[in-house]
Amino acid sequence: MGIKAKLNAATLLTAWLLAVPVAFADDQPVKGGTLIYLEQQAHTNLYPPAGGFYPNGGILNQITDKLTYQNPQTLQIEPWVAESWTVNDNATEYTFKIRKGVTFSDGSPLDANAVAKNYDTFGLGNKELKQPVSEVINNYDHSEVVDPYTVKFYFKKPSPGFLQGTSVIGSGLVSLKTLALPFDQLGDATKIIGSGPFVVESETLGKQLALMARTDYNWGPSKLEHQGRAYLDGIKYIITGEDSVRIGALLSGQADFIRQLQAYDEKQVADQSFAIYAAPTRGVNDSVAFRPDNPLVADIKVRQALLHATNNKEIVDTLFSANYPQAKSVISSAAAGYADLSSNLSYDPAVAEKLLDEADWKKGADGIRQKDGKPLSLAVYESLPQPQNKAVLQLVAQQWAKIGVKLQVLAGTSGNVVTDNVDPAKTPLVVAEVGRADPDVVKSQFYPKNRDALLQKGGLNPKAIFFDDKLNGILETVASETDRSKRLAAAKAAQEYLLDQAYVIPFFEEPQVFAGAPYVKGVAFEAVGRPSFYSTWLAEH
Amino acid sequence: MARYILSRFGQALFVLWAAFSVSFVLLQSLPGDAVLIKFQNPDYGLSPEQLADIRAAYGADGSFLHQYAHAVWNFLTGDFGYSLQAGVPVSSLLATNLPPSLLLAASGFVVATLLAVLIAIACNLSGLAWLRGLIQSIPSLFISVPTFWLGIMLIQIFSFRLRLVPVINPGPWEGLFLPILTVAVPISAPLAQILLKNIDEVLTKPFVPVARAKGLSHAKVLWRHVAKNTLLPVLTVAGLLFGELIASAVITETVFGLNGIGGLTKQAVDSQDVAVLQAIVVIAATAFVVINLVVDLLYPVLDPRLKTKLGAA
Q: Which residue in B has a C-alpha nearest to residue A236's C-alpha?
């Protein structure tokens, strides 16, 4: 902490010595220039369904196009590579008309055939090439090329979330050459051939990635104001792992845009009139989920007690900024299907103590509650991608200690975390969070065949005995109900049920936070917070 | 001499094999495996059946001996395999990470040696005798400066405040200046300490007063007689430090955003990326063996008395 304080002091001093560059408020976009983008971590595999990892999404969103475009303001699905589409009544057949003249950067056409091959791979996987199935595509059966610019998809069961699924980063369209490569080789960005406004020019693995604009690009989402090629000539991604170096470089003019700005650094960036972009990830909030298979948390009263012993306001006020709204439900208030359930999430230690007393957990000599000689002591692994997760969990541990519950916050290697997290005996709690701007997101997080945060029977844990048919039934309705209002009602029911049963304790709505120099204009974000630089330009500075 | 070199070579091969096998056993006994770590990642949201298919596709379910034989065979045929986590061949990971590490380590080492020698000289200059106590405490100061803090301070001062060198998009040497200094400072400390201690010790030897009595100046005694006699122990420690240097560069690499073996190792350990780790272990073992061989072979060159002993062995 001492070092951190010194560093902050040094950066502040540096900042104070700089003259703040004043951008000329000229709204006319300027062509040219290279955006210097500092990224915290190197990308991993760039197979589009692997685009969920923040660094991967930040690249894929510039080099690939999607069939449809989800308007980040209205969350409506708009045309992009697909000019129009039709869906049958029970959402088992989708027909897309493909825009003519779209090409991949290797010159091959983006036509019905290419789209069909992309979705066959995403929907079914490819065992031979080790390509996994995409999380966003449910119940996929097969594709049919109706004519060179018409493609039809068939589903085994209704798949109302599919249309939105065609708009996400994980559904970026790539050329047949890329699809023919084994999964192993797709970490090499130069091999990802898309049809996007930018193309990978060169890469130094783990260090740098250079994109250049495609001058012949002319197929941006049709409802966008900006058409034609990107304004920028290129983007240079430079991996800079250290937080203080990224901020220092931005403030001293060595970089234009940085990803992963920590809440405690926001002030010094804002003080110099640099822009902070907190893009919502619009899905399941930053939370912890219980594993009811663990006997300590099997009793609903214990879970409810912990829910009411958690002071979200204190978490947000102590550790975060206004960019991290306190959770009002299981999913974000900006997500489709959100229902305000903040009254169920009240902080009330008196109620918590009463519930634990009722459940026969009595305070022992050391202040920790006990039952049959066993202490009420729980463990959870910190989650590295979530902002300040360790600090969040430690604060929760302090809050729970007040009612006599011990929470151990563990750190471990990926191997430990992965194996222990499927064992409810070791970790009765897990950190949950996922972004997707569709009601399907709640199923993704809690359904046993998907992310399975509750570790139900039939999911990741082979020894599980816990399952909740009522919950799973609601989640299946969310993923297959074709009537929109009924589907949203199911999404609301899922949130209510998850909180009634106290399966989840949501903390806050997680944004992805970036900072940019004042002369960087026209930065946009897709619906779950990945940046898009298609309309970005650099004003005079 | 030929027999000596041959036996040292045999030892080197054994060390390499042992390092490979021990690391293989250790990696296999860890909980989880690379396939699990990569694909159980919630980003993919795969079902257990899909996960099982992928494991089968990667042969992650094969027997221990089978996987070991597979790994040894691949290495002998020069195939380092694919990094499961990064999705690129291990050989290209090494090609991008090894040269910068070697350059940083070698230059850091040279600068560290220079710093150590400078400290030793300053300490023995008669004109600076009044400062001797202060100079002698420099090594303890250097060794207690945290590398992380030093790196950040150098960046804040020289790059962000004085704007002398950029950290983002620097030229090839421009970008190395601060990292080299960061690496060199802590490494120079033990070298300087050993140099100082040895000089003091050699100065008490009987030949020193003899040389002085013959009319040599203090500086000449130091340069001609003492320096040569202090080199051997310094060389031994230097050999060990060089290996440590490559391994401990991870902090410097992280702070400056440099490519290197340190960062690569950290990532590979975290994701249990076996192919990458095996390659790193073999390379590290090779470097260590080669450096120590070179040091051993240099002994007789520096000290003629050792030549006869080795010849007899």
A: B169
